[in-house]
C-alpha cells in the first residue's frame, strides 16, 4: 500500500568544498576587475555621506536623543539671527513677565513672553517685517499682498446662543487678522503698498486694524474661491509679492527671533509652550531654541476644536479637518509643508485644551498679570494649567516654563458697552 520511497541522494562533502572555493574565486576576480570608475563612484558616495553627517545634529525628542537633518528645514539659527539683525530696529523687544500668584496656581515657575505688546498687537509683526525687508527694492516697489481668514459658519452657530444671552462672541473675540495687520504695518514702514483681500462680511474691527496701518483693502465675496480669485487678480495686476502667513522661510525666521530674545532674558527656561495653528510661530521658536539649547522642551498648545496638529503628530502626516470650532480664532489654520517637518521632528508634544480652559486662562491674564490677551494668545497658560499637562509624568521636570502670550487683539466693544449700562 505504501509506494516505493526513492533512496535519498548521497551528498558528497567534497563537492561542497569545490563549490565554495569556486564562489570565492568569482568574488575575488570580480573585486580585482572593478574598474576605476566604479571605485571612484564608491569613494564619492562615501564622501557625500560624510558631508551629510556634518549637517546632522542631535536633539532630545520625547526624552530620546535623536538625529535630525538641519538642511531639510525652511529656516535655521543663522537665518533667524539674520532676521534679528534685519528687524531689530523696527520691532519691540517684548518684556518677560512673572507672577508669584500664577506660579503658585501652576506649581511651576512661569515666564510670560508678552508678544501681545509687540507692534500690531501680536508676534506676527516679526515675520511680516522680516519678509518685507528681505525683498529687493524692485520687488518691494510693487508691494505685497495677502488675504485673511474670516469667521467660519460653525463659529457663527456657536455665537448665536451667546448672542441670545447678551454676549456677542463675533465682536468680543476679534477675528484673526493679525498677519494682515502686521503686513500692512511693515509695508508702511518700508513705504510700499500692502493689498489685503478681505471678504465683505468680515467684522469691522479687523478691517479697522488693516486700514489703521495703511493697508489697501480689496473686497471679495465671502467664499474662499472669491478670496483666492481676487488675490490672484491683484497679483496679476500689481506684480506684488504674495506673503504667506506661516508657510514661508522668511516668516518662520522672523518668528524665531522670539526665542533668541527669550533665552537671553531668561536663560534658565527648560520648556517653552507655544500656541500652534499653521505652525510658523512654533517652527521658528523650536528651531532657534533647540539650536541654542538642544535639551529644551518645546510643547505646542492647541484647541481641542481645531486639533489638526495633534492628529498630524499622532499619524505622522499632515491632517486637515473639515471644520474647526474654537474661540481661539487665530488657531484654525492647518500645518503647511514647510512647518510640518519642524513640528514632526522638534516639537516634543501637543497639549490640547478646550475653550473653557482657554477663556479661564484669558481671564487669569487680565486679572493677575493685568495684560489684555486674545484667546489664541492665552492658550499656553491654559495648557500649563490643564490636567493633561499636570498629570503627565513626562512633564514633571518642566519647572522653568516660558509661555508665549502671542497676541492681544481683542475687540472690547461688548465689555465696554456693558460698563456703560
Ligand atoms: C495670536 C496668535 N497666536 C498664535 C497664532 C498661531 O501662529 P501660527 O499660524 O504661526 O502657528 C496666530 C495665528 O494667526 C495668532 O494670531
UniProtKB/TrEMBL annotation:
Top-rank lineage group of the source organism: Eukaryota
InterPro entries, A to Z: Ser/Thr_deHydtase_PyrdxlP-BS, TrpB-like_PALP, TrpB-like_PALP_sf
SUPFAM superfamilies attached to this UniProt entry: Tryptophan synthase beta subunit-like PLP-dependent enzymes
Keyword Magnesium set for record: yes
Keywords attached to this entry: Magnesium, Pyridoxal phosphate
Cofactor(s) annotated in UniProt: Mg(2+); Ca(2+); pyridoxal 5'-phosphate; Mn(2+)
Domain Tryptophan synthase beta chain-like PALP span(s) in chain numbering: 87-148, 176-405
Family per record: Belongs to the serine/threonine dehydratase family.
Name of the protein described by the UniProt record: Tryptophan synthase beta chain-like PALP domain-containing protein
